[in-house]
Amino acid sequence: MKEWHRPGKNLVIPTFVSTEQAIEWGSHLNAEEHATLVERQRALSNTALAEYNLRRMLNLATQSHLMREAAGAFTQACLESA
User: Fold this and answer.
1) What is d(CA 60, CA 82) in angstroms, rounded to the nearest whole number?
2) CB pairs under 8 A, 24+ apart, for 14-17?
3) Is the pLDDT reported for residue 4 higher than 70?
4) Which are the contacts of 46, defined by CB distance < 8 A and separation ≥ 6?
5) Is residue 26 over pLDDT 80?
6) What's this model's pTM, rounded to 2 decimal places?
7) DSSP classification of residue 74
8) % residues pLDDT > 90 (the chain)
9) Residue 9's pLDDT is what?
10) 18 Cβ partners below 8 Å, 6+ apart?
11) Where are the alpha helices (DSSP H) in 9-30?
12) Are 12 and 5 in contact (CB under 8 A)?
């Protein structure tokens, strides 16, 4: 599984292969990790929008969507634990 990491941020985000994997991973985040995930998801979404190569754009947009699913899983897990 390919991972990417930004110096200064300790969250390593996997390259998700399914919605289920993204949801499972996202449901175990803490608030700081969730904020980092959302920040990176937005950046990836913007990168996808600026991409000219259609195949690369689709791959970036798919990963952005799966990251958004992971972020949503964090929110759902918080609601369920309250």
Assistant:
1) 34
2) 15/63, 16/63, 16/66, 16/67, 16/69, 16/70
3) no
4) none
5) yes
6) 0.85
7) H
8) 77
9) 65
10) 66
11) 19-26
12) yes
